[in-house]
Amino acid sequence: MSMKIKDLNNSKIPIVKINNKLNKTSTKVLFPEKVEQANKVLQKVGLPK
After folding, report:
1. How does DSSP classify residue 41?
2. Is the whole model's pTM more than 0.70, yes or no?
3. Contact indicator for 11, 3 with CB cutoff of 8 Å
4. Rounded to an integer, what distance in angstroms lies between the CA atom of residue 34 and that of residue 40?
5. Mind giving me the DSSP string for 12-25?
C-alpha cells in the first residue's frame, strides 16, 4: 500500500512501529556511570524550582 505524503500527514495511523523486544530493557539501567554522574550533579546543584 503506497500512500502519498499528504495522506500520511492527515492519517491517524502511526508511521513508526515500536518493537516490543525493547520492553526487556525497561527495568535495566543501561548507563550506570551516567546515572551516577547525574545524581552527583543533582546533589550539588539541586532541582530547578
Report:
1. H
2. no
3. yes
4. 10
5. SS-S----GGGGGG
